Amino acid sequence: MILEPESQFPNKEAYQLNILGDRIAIYASTNQGLFYGIQTLLQLIPLTTNATEIKLDNLMMDDVPKFQWRGMHLDVSRHFFSKEFIKKYIDYLAMYKMNTFHWHLTDDQGWRIEIKKYPKLTEVGAWRNGSMIGHYTDQTFDDIRYGGFYSQEEIKEIVAYAKERHITVVPEIEIPGHALAALASYPEFSCTGGPFEVGKSWGVFDDVFCPKDETFTFLENILSEVMALFPSEYIHIGGDECPKVRWKSCPNCQKRIKHEKLKDEHELQSYFIQKIEKFVNNNGRKIIGWDEILEGGLAPNAAVMSWRGTEGGIAAAKQKHFVVMSPGSHCYFDHYQGEPKNEPIAFGGYTNVEKVYSFNPIPKELSEEESKYILGAQANVWTEYINTPEHVEYMVFPRIAALSEVLWGTSNPNEYKVFETRLIQHFERYEKKGINYSKAIFEVTSKVRPAENGVAFELKSVNPNGIKYTTDGSEPNANSISYEKPILVTKNQTIKAAYFENNKVKSAKIEQPFFITKSTGKNIELEHQPHENYEIGGSFTLVDGMKGNPSKFGRDWLGFWGKDLNATIDLGKSETISKISINSLLSKGSWIYYPKEIQFLVSNDGINYQSIQIISQKEIEIKKGKVVIEFPKLKAKFIQIVAKNNGIIADGNPGTGSNSWLFVDEISVE
Ligand code: ACM
Ligand code: ZN
After folding, report:
1. Global pTM?
2. Catalytic choice (73, 166, 178, 321)
3. Of 58, 62, 478, 528, which cross-links 563 as Cys (Cβ 3.0–4.6 Å)?
């Protein structure tokens, strides 16, 4: 290992690794560069057992990370993780040459950092009298006291441990929302005075910090202790999901709005963040916050963490603010990574390894100059549904490997298969290290396409030749039909498939029932396009013969954010019909609402439409989203369905003030 002059390298994280004969040399201008060289070397050492000699191929490589913020986040509020596991987590980051650990230390469900000046934050705020069990939509709870926190001594130990591994720990103290645990400890800093209980439910709470002088003193004292513990350039101040209901009816808040000549409560949030920013800046640090800090005006030096898509990041970069990309679509490791029914319960969404690998932190909307404001990207691990270290590992591995390549600039989405082959070699290492990882990449995945009188069902896996399937409802085994080409489906039937290697099943089984009706595989046009995160099969998703699984909405559904579904199906010829059905979803925790109403129309010429029925939101609720209308036989060539989006989410719900999602699937015409 050789330290060289800085001028020899593009930056302080770069290194060169040379292997020639019996000589291995790592060159860099810093210990950090050398450290990365060693991590790469460790990955090159083959995993042979009982070897007395290890052979490495000759190699000369120059490596430099593409992005300077290579982050992984962990939420320790919803569930608490021991100091020992946090160190392990830091080791995992180091293994993949990440350099930033975003530690989400405070939230509604628990305050996890000792603050000497305010002991009740951990005496009261670190403990809750129960937790949600099952999914948010189930609304069921246990009554087990749950909690924990890190002492300042433990935090110093962790920060030092991370530093040895060239990882900066960025603490997050949530302001002004997600503050219930703090307010349960010190209700005087709320608008109403409380009392409050540390959150037992997931989601978003209306009681938030009240922007009065005493609150700022409280927060500044907390931040002073935080800055003394964490030497990071950035302090994360949250800023996301702050309902404005309390502020609207609080005399203190309204006085502040008047006095500071603010337009509304959004500008009050911006005022709040700017005041905190000034304090942090005066202490020689910078703030970073979730993209809601753009609303009502961005604080002058703030960096933005873009999570609700990449739009916030794009807006911030255009305003010459630094950005860390962390969009739900590619970077939320609390989403499903495999077929939901084979996976432990997860937040929702579907973000598999391939999706992570395909991520480009620099959006095409940015010019070269603006792109310089993209510091990098990070994956977020929210732990509502993750309560053991093994489960954290499962959500992180192997997706972290894909993110690492994105951030070091070696990913190439067109060569995903090459990456996958390399990735499988990592699995053996995970097993040696005792890391619990997801094997979802072995899963059989599918695509459907329109075909003559039905659909074609295409199957994929690590190696498609290993797929076996049945069409008669029986379980696939090593002697079932070998998959060769897309399976033509023209009648109601269920296809079951699994991936086999050496006659042994390697993947969970997939099972796909098909419902072929007069609309299946027919031409369908949409007036508004679905959101980019939920458009996997495009409009065809609605007539692909597959009904979306109502409890798992990551796939097989089209998602519209704030927009209506307006679909027109061309049946190809005039057909006699008497029944139409369509499904929609409700999951308030994920901001998904049933449509306000659904209108069904028919036409024979595609110009003049006749409305045959309108179904109200009430009726949709009663039918739990499964709407079927039956009517006297009629002839029609075109079917139009308009499902109106629920609109802005009402106060008191997760996502208050944001657009609702509308999730719809399978339109059947009989
Ligand atoms: C977030 O996921 N609420 C930042
Ligand atoms: Zn107030």
Report:
1. 0.84
2. 178
3. 528
